[in-house]
Amino acid sequence: MVDRATSYWATLRHAWFSNVRGDLVAGIVVALALIPEAIAFSIIAGVDPAVGLYASFCMAVVIAFTGGRPGMISAATGAMALVMITLVAEHGVEYLFAATILTGVLQMVFGRLRLARYMMFIPRTVMQGFVNALAILIFMAQVPHFVGHGGPTYLMVIGGLAILYLFPYINRTIPPALVTIVALTGAAYFADIPLQTVGDMGELPAGIPLFGIPAVPMNLETLQIIFPTALTLTIVGLLESLLTASIVDDLTDTPSKKNRECIGQGIGNCVTGLFGGMASCAMIGQSIINVKSGGRGRLSSLAAGIYLLCFILFFGDLVSMIPMPALVSVMIMVSIGTFDWSTFAMLRKMPRTDAFVLIVTVATVVITHDLAKGVLAGVLLSAVFFVRKLARQIAVTHTDSADGQHRVYHVSGVLFFVAVDNFLSGFDFTADVPQVTIDLTHTTLWDSSAVGAVDRVVGKLRRNGAEVEVRHPEGQGAGLMDAMAAYDDPRASASQH
């Protein structure tokens, strides 16, 4: 009992206090970057900027305690905002709060059912496509903030990128993103350079988020209205969160608890909906900023949330002065760092099907601005290519006895509905052979279509006058044959299959 308690407190200390300085500093950078993004995502969803800012604060604080991936940042995101547009436009923001709470409940259910294990079904090429598409979307989201805003904006963005990439050669302790934000804000203020600022993105809230139950009727009609949106938010949020967790796992060489993350995201969204925020999930861009700025533990997420609230409440005027080019330069650096540049070399080396899956994933995400659709397209396409390749592995060969009176068909590979045609084509039904043996001992039978194909072969051979013996496969296939095969059942017909 003592050892267990000691281990628990050791784990707790490591998660919270093993990197205090790095977590606190990274939290500042993340909080500053969250403000304009939260406001922008609120505008996308059609709600007041306070909804996105309150969501980011609540989610960052709650997930610090409940999440399964230390160092990962969760807040309002563009992918989630896109899902909310129709609900807000047709029914109003209160229904959005109700949908956010329901999203949290569904995410907790998904976590309790341990559905995170199905992440294994997402191929590496789809993951690469997801990351690269996200990098492109991060960059595209910055374009409106500097294209067409005049020469001073371009110069500030270039200057910001120069600081970001050159400052580490001077000092590796202070995060270059923080230096960039402070330096460009100071330069813009003292030189009186006309630039778009954070304040131009929307008015910052003046008070703290307050607890409140959504003002919607508690009846079946409300559930019918919010459930489709909540279900989509659940899937998109968990998908983006779990993929982000996997990416942060790779960046930090540390594991995460995916099912706990699902439950943590659910608790966070329940709290967020009760405090006037929109549904949120993990943010790959901000998570990478956090890691690159030195954040590793749970304290970084908590600090980011607290800093965010303090900035908008006590330093709102100063925060409003931050020029957008400063934050644009930081996000451009993130997009460049996020993009897997080795992809171009890999495209020439990997199988054409894998390359096609990667390209389709990227294209779908970029066109639709929906990460879930891109991943779904990639997974479905990968499944089709896999099944097609597997179907081609079925092989049928034969050996004949010296007198030509006995033929043995040797079948190997996986027999299922897609491979049936290849399986049938391996038999010669016109050969005049009195005795035929079908050896399935090296074959895996997956479904009823496989058993039906065996029945068809046996039936055709017997109609041609051959005496047919079937050697059953081992394992699950044997049980399937015993249960479903009809070639020795006079009451059954092969047409049943």
Structural key phrases:
497 residues, alpha/beta, Transcription Regulator spoIIAA, 6 strands, disordered C terminus
What class do helices, strands and sheet pairing give? alpha/beta
Report strand order across the widest sheet: 3-4-5-6
Please give the domain count: 2
Described by the principal axes of the CA atoms, the overall outline is elongated
Number of helices: 20
Largest beta sheet, briefly?
A: 4 strands, mixed
Q: Count the strands?
A: 6
Taken as a percent bin, the fraction of beta residues is 5-15%
Low-confidence region ranges: 492-497
Whole-number mean pLDDT: 87
Oligomer: single chain
Spell out the helices and strands N to C: HHHEHHHHHHHEHHHHHHHEEHEHEH
Computed CA radius of gyration, to the nearest angstrom: 29 Å
Determine the fraction of residues in helical runs and give it as a percent range: 55-70%
Distance between the termini: 59 Å
Q: What does this entry show, briefly?
A:
By secondary structure, this protein is α/β, with parallel strands linked by helices. The protein folds into two domains: about 1-380, no CATH class; about 395-495, Transcription Regulator spoIIAA.
